Amino acid sequence: MENPLNITSMYSNKQIARIGGFLYLLLILFGVFAEKYVRNSLIVVDNAALTTRNITDNVMLFKMGFVADLLMLVTYFLLPLVLYQLFKKTSRALSWLMVFCVIVAVAIMCSNMLNHYAPLLLLHQNGFENAFNVDQIHSSVLFYMQMHTIGYHIAQLFFGLWLLPLGYLLIRSGQFPIIIGILLMIGCTGYLVGFIIYFLFHGQSSTLTQFVTAPADIGEFSLCLYLLVQGVKGNHSTISQRSTE
After folding, report:
1. How many Cβ atoms sit within 10 Å of the Cβ of residue 119?
2. Do residues 167 and 188 touch, judged by C-beta distance below 8 A?
3. End-to-end CA, the chain
4. Are the CB atoms for 134 and 52 separated by under 8 Å?
5. Phi and psi of 221, rounded to 5°?
6. Where are the transmembrane segments (predicted)?
7. Radius of gyration, alpha carbons of the chain
8. For the chain, which residues score pLDDT lower than 50?
């Protein structure tokens, strides 16, 4: 029986790479919209009442952020399955490790999305206004959004870990610029450092985290563009087998 993950018989590596690039682009766009545009514009970390008012006044935007995050997770789940087709002949074991890290991250984030949706229930579900006073509802809304942020940073541990095998596979395959692979591997370390900074030195986390994760951001955006524009080097139907499993 043919492996359901095997799409190399239907598409060339350039086509597979461009599919991966398109998924990567969607992932970035959905993620930036949900995190930077929606939550960053509505959530005020030290003001529960203002946060609640922002969500109440922009319910549709808040819901769009929720949907965008779920679409981001779908593309994030599919991306390593596509990249697996490019790298399985370089190292099947590392390719599966890459897929596994993303599956764990997606599972954490899907569960964490309940924290994003909870404020909608508190503010619009009948009955809560009778069980809680206004201040309690405001505090609960901010609490759930802060829990979402914590869950997001827990998932980032695996966001970082998947970059290590991905970066190594990029280098070993010989079909991508080495600098992108190096940036991704450095980015893995950056995510791990950012994870530690956030949970041990929360007050100083924002600027430092942005700094240490910058190589990952640059590497991932560069890989996205390379996959979309170039695909892979040359016009080969298979990625080079440079390492053994």
Report:
1. 26
2. yes
3. 23
4. no
5. -65, -40
6. 66-87, 94-114, 150-171, 178-201
7. 20
8. 1-2, 4, 237-238, 240-245
Residue at 18: amino acid letter:
R
DSSP assignment string, the chain:
---TT--TTTS-HHHHHHHHHHHHHHHHHHHHIIIIIIIHHH--TT-HHHHHHHHHHTHHHHHHHHHHHHHHHHHHHHHHHHHHHHHTTT-HHHHHHHHHHHHHHHHHHHHHHHHHHHHHHHHHSTTHHHHS-HHHHHHHHHHHHHHHHHHHHHHHHHHHHTHHHHHHHHHHHSSS-HHHHHHHHHHHHHHHHHHHHHHHSGGGHHHHHHHHTHHHHHHHHHHHHHHHHT-SSTT-SS----S--
Give the number of residues written for the chain: 245
Q: What is the pLDDT of residues 7-19, one digit of tens each?
A: 555 568 889 999 9
pLDDT at res. 76 = 97
Tokens representing 33 are: 């919209």
> Which pLDDT belongs to residue 234?
58
As a whole number of angstroms, the distance between CA 95 and CA 109 comes to 22
- Please give the Cα distance from 165 to 163 (Å, whole number): 6
Round to whole Å and give the CA distance between 161 and 201: 21
CB 176 within 8 Å of CB 232: yes
Q: In angstroms, rounded to a whole number, what is the distance separating the alpha carbons of residues 142 and 48?
A: 5
CA separation for the pair 245, 243 (Å, rounded)? 7
Quickly tell me which residue has 């997606």 as its tokens. 106
